Amino acid sequence: MIIESAEEQDIGRIKEIYRSAFPENEHELVATLACKLLVEETEPEILSLIAKTNDTIMGHVAFSPVRIENNQNCKAYILAPLAVDSGYQKQIIGSSLIKQGLEILTDDGIHLVFVYGDPEFYGRFGFRTDTASEFNAPYDLEYPFGWQATVLKEWTQKNTPAAVSCVSSLSNPDLW
Ligand SMILES: CC(C)(COP(=O)(O)OP(=O)(O)OC[C@H]1O[C@@H](n2cnc3c(N)ncnc32)[C@H](O)[C@@H]1OP(=O)(O)O)[C@@H](O)C(=O)NCCC(=O)NCCS
């Protein structure tokens, strides 16, 4: 398996992966998010990774930059979305995509990475609800216990709780 940057030409296959991995009532929303993040231009850049074997893309993850209110010193990202095609799950593909993404962000000097998801799964990768509790998510959360963060590099946090704002593709309350 190799993990590499996703390209615009992968959009069709990435949509299929989200349609297979998520329930019918959610998959269109999340597939659309994955595709929008692939083309949205931000500074710093969005990281969009695919896992593939023999030219078959099996999983996808995106990490996009977030801004922390009143703290330009903290460079932060959010992991969203993530999916592995239902035919390839439980083969460490999702874990590898997360680990590779966190490694790249660590090398880039990023301090903090958020995620909104199941703590039982993301806890394996160092994400904690108490780390995120100093930060307010961009929208009201349907599942507040899913708001987590992991520290990659220490920094000085002032004025907590601080508001977090996200890129345009994620600026949709239905996603939260
Ligand atoms: C979640 C997901 C990306 C994991 O990818 P994967 O390649 O199957 O995962 P891995 O093989 O790396 O890890 C599998 C382990 O994670 C566990 N796991 C998967 N989803 C989980 C969840 N929601 N909560 C807790 N554990 C979970 C599996 O039980 C398995 O545990 P084990 O190692 O003890 O057997 C994949 O199952 C998926 O696409 N699910 C549907 C979409 C989704 O939920 N995306 C995340 C949104 S927050």
UniProtKB/TrEMBL annotation:
InterPro entries: Acyl_CoA_acyltransferase (IPR016181), GNAT_dom (IPR000182). Residues 1-146 form the N-acetyltransferase domain. Transmembrane segments: none annotated. Gene3D superfamilies: 3.40.630.30. It holds the Pfam family Acetyltransf_9. This is N-acetyltransferase domain-containing protein. GO terms for molecular function: acyltransferase activity, transferring groups other than amino-acyl groups.
